[in-house]
Amino acid sequence: MNPVHADFFAGGAGAERTLRGNLAAFDRLRIVPRVLRATGDRDLRTTLFGAGLATPILVAPTAFHLLAHPGGEAATAQGAAAAGTVMVVSMAATQPVEVIARAGGPLWFQLYPQPDPGFTASVVKRAEAAGCRALVVTVDSPVFGRRERDLRNGFTELPAGLVCENMRDDTGRVRDIAMDATAGWDRIGWLRTVTGLPILLKGVLHPADARLAVEHGVDGLIVSNHGGRQLDGAIATIDALPAVAEAVAKRIPVLVDGGIRRGTDVLIALARGADAVLVGRPVLDALAAGGATAVRDRLRELTAELDHAMALAGARRPDDLTPDLVAVAG
Ligand SMILES: Cc1cc2nc3c(=O)[nH]c(=O)nc-3n(C[C@H](O)[C@H](O)[C@H](O)COP(=O)(O)O)c2cc1C
Ligand SMILES: CCCCC(=O)C(=O)O
């Protein structure tokens, strides 16, 4: 891959403290296994918004897959479908959502609410018509993060021929993705008038926001710091998760992403209160290395690692994973 694009995928904001912190936080946590639990064959099937998945490991929304592989987002969708899980399609995808939907599914669609409500509504309706089954509203990006690698590399626009295909308006013009620092909770209420899809908020870290989200009728949360690409210095997601899960008290599904690289990381996240996890860079790395097949294999490998770790920790189903199975290393 072009090293400038590799830096875009791997990099974070500022001094990359949060990027590193997501991984370092897992290094400080240890599993306290149970024994003689007769787990037999484990059952990793997970239900989210009425849909059954083979695994609680989903594909996080990430931009510009055509920079990683000529198969683009369609290849990722094919890999996710073969692994029996959801791919969240980024609003910054380089292929049309209709093309991605033909390659795989189930899909959810990630949205940055745009300042133009008519255009925002048209993007949501388009994703819904293409078959996306949930809307993931990214709320950690009122302004764009300062990615110093990209600034140093001068990575300010996509190579010729690549565009954000889902940003076309009805004249066919491709709009720039705007970050909107004027959005408040009323924006979520407005989105509710636009779509009947389940609405998840992605980028919640504070338990007070988790409570507000439930009060505003949000259907699910993703505890995320955008893979360390937005607010550098933000808390590691696995550290933020317990307080958010407690605030939500199982009223709506809570998902988490950031730094999940092993099945044991997934186990810890589920034990700390997540209903499912998402992975970003592991999927991008697999996509770059080997397209749809490699994406499928990477997701299956993480799932097999989770299955193995659950057997060793005495859990048969994700629901058996409880907070007492995780300790902070001394
Ligand atoms: C290259 C890249 C592009 C991303 N693009 C988006 C995006 O378009 N929308 C979004 O909500 N999050 C985006 N994210 C954040 C991911 O959805 C996710 O929060 C993060 O990658 C999880 O951390 P991980 O990479 O350690 O698994 C992006 C992340 C990366 C690495
Ligand atoms: C305008 C593209 C935004 C992609 C994104 O969210 C990221 O790179 O983290």
Describe the protein in words.
This is Alpha-hydroxy-acid oxidizing enzyme. The protein is α/β, with parallel strands linked by helices and 330 residues long. It is built from eleven helices and twelve strands. Strand 8, helix 8 and strand 9 form a beta-alpha-beta unit. It is globular and about 65 Å long.
Short description:
GO terms for molecular function: FMN binding; oxidoreductase activity, acting on CH-OH group of donors. The chain contains eleven helices and twelve strands.
Determine Rg (CA atoms, Å). 19 Å
What ligands does this structure carry?
flavin mononucleotide, 2-Ketohexanoic acid
* Tally of individual domains: 1
Q: Which CATH-level-2 architecture?
A: Alpha-Beta Barrel
What is the helical fraction, as a range of percent? 25-40%
Basic shape: globular
The third-level CATH topology is: TIM Barrel
Record the strand order, biggest sheet. Answer: 4-11-10-9-8-7-6-5
The computed structural class is alpha/beta
Instruction: Supply the CATH superfamily name.
Output: Aldolase class I
Distance between the termini: 40 Å
Protein name: Alpha-hydroxy-acid oxidizing enzyme
Binding site for glyoxylate: 112, 147, 226, 229
Domain FMN hydroxy acid dehydrogenase: 1-330
Keywords: Flavoprotein, FMN, Oxidoreductase
Label this structure with key terms.
330 residues, alpha/beta, two-stranded antiparallel ribbon, globular, binds flavin mononucleotide
Q: Secondary-structure blueprint of this entry?
A:
Elements (H helix, E strand, L loop, with lengths): L2 H8 L6 H11 L1 E3 L14 E3 L2 E3 L3 E3 L12 H11 L4 E3 L7 H7 L3 E5 L5 H13 L5 E4 L9 H6 L32 H9 L4 E6 L2 H9 L4 E4 L13 H12 L5 E4 L5 H9 L4 E4 L1 H33 L12 E3 L2
Parallel strand pairs: 4-11, 5-6, 6-7, 7-8, 8-9, 9-10, 10-11
Antiparallel strand pairs: 1-12, 2-3
Helix pairs in contact: 3-4, 3-11, 8-9, 10-11
The protein binds flavin mononucleotide (FMN) and 2-Ketohexanoic acid.
The site of flavin mononucleotide (FMN) has 24 residues, from helix 1 and helix 11.
